[in-house]
Amino acid sequence: MRASVGRSVYVAGCSEELFTMLECDVARSIRTDDGRVRRPSHAWTPTVHALLAHLRAAGVSGVPAPLAITNEYEEVSRLSGDAGAACWPYQATEQGLRSAAHMLRRLHDATISWVPPSDAVWGVPPTEPPEVVCHGDPGPWNMTWIDGQAAGLFDWDFCHPGPRLEDVAYALGHLAPFRDDDTAMRWHGLPARPTAGADSKFPARSTASPSLVWSTRSSTFRGW
Ligand SMILES: Nc1ncnc2c1ncn2[C@@H]1O[C@H](COP(=O)(O)OP(=O)(O)OP(=O)(O)O)[C@@H](O)[C@H]1O
Ligand SMILES: [Mg+2]
Fold first, then answer.
1. Is the pLDDT assigned to residue 26 strictly greater than 70?
2. What's the 197 CA to ligand 1 centre distance in angstroms?
3. Does the pLDDT value for residue 151 go beyond 90?
4. Which residue has the CA at smallest separation from atom 26 of ligand 1?
5. Taking a C-beta distance cutoff of 8 angstroms, is the pair 127, 166 a contact?
6. Which of 32, 97, 161, 172 is 20 to 30 A removed from 108 (C-alpha atoms)?
7. For residues 37-56, b (16+ Cβ closer than 10 Å) or e, as one string?
8. How far apart are CA 130 and CA 111, in angstroms?
9. Distance between CA atoms of 136 and 162, rounded to whole angstroms?
10. pLDDT for 37
11. pLDDT for position 126
């Protein structure tokens, strides 16, 4: 699995139930054809689709349009752009990182006007303060990229009301190469060693705060 290094970090603080679900995810079938993506549905899928419908109606094009839900699967529109491991190096460029940050900001802002249904079900429990609806898994594996810039965010299974910072810290934990150079190059697919310093090609490494990232992520995990 291409995100095995990331996932082993990701699942470290998960509840057993969520861990089991993620394990099942490895084997679950996801089909993409005819501009549609078919993925397994869950108890929270109607809530996710309501959010996606709101975002699309608000003019946000970087999220999938909800198309259908059955007992077994959901269908959403396929976002344009590239996705997958080949795109990971984009995250480490100045424009790649900035575009991902701007996209997250726009998405968060657009969730503020959404009123969740009274019977909303969340894949991840809400966290305090409920400033926005967090995506819950805003890593590069859930992004589409156009011309090296983040253009879309899919897989909203773990969305939940929470503070913006939670998603920002989570994203930075993957978008910025905080780990040692060898791991960063292997995992992020960087073309060169992410040397820290003023002339670094990877400014996130030298300007973001690892302690903020990890402390925020830890508090998120406690909520699971
Ligand atoms: N709405 C979408 N638009 C474009 N591509 C998509 C979309 N949804 C899924 N994909 C494609 O399907 C792949 C699997 O995506 P998805 O996030 O749904 O599965 P997953 O089991 O959560 O995988 P991962 O662990 O990589 O997040 C993605 O890498 C991407 O190529
Ligand atoms: Mg995913």
1. no
2. 34
3. yes
4. 141
5. yes
6. 32
7. bbbebeebbbbbbbbbebbb
8. 11
9. 9
10. 96
11. 97
Mutate-to-test residue for ligand 1 from 30, 87, 158, highest number of ligand atoms within 8 A of CB: 30
Those residues with Cβ within 8 angstroms of residue 97's Cβ, 6 or more apart along the chain or in another chain: 91, 175, 176, 203, 204
Q: Are 124 and 160 in contact (CB under 8 A)?
A: yes
Smallest-distance ligand from the CA of 153: 1
pLDDT score for 73 = 95
For residue 73, list its beta bridge partners.
40
Indicate the DSSP class of residue 97. H
Atom of ligand 1 nearest to the CA of 79: 3
Q: For residue 107, how many C-alpha atoms fall within 13 Å in the half-sphere facing its CB? A: 30
How far apart CA 173 and CA 170 sit, in angstroms, is 5
Atom of ligand 1 nearest to the CA of 39: 18
Q: For residue 181, which phi and psi values (nearest 5 degrees)?
A: -55, -45
* Ligand 1 mutation target, pool 4, 24, 26, 32, most atoms within 8 A of CB: 32
Angle subtended at Cα 162 by Cα 158 and Cα 165, rounded to the nearest 5 degrees: 100
112 lines ligand 1 (CB under 6 A): no
Q: Of all atoms in ligand 1, which is nearest to the CA of residue 155?
A: 17
Residues 6+ apart with CB under 8 A from 168: 101, 104, 216
* Domain boundary assignment for the chain: 4-222
pTM of the model: 0.80
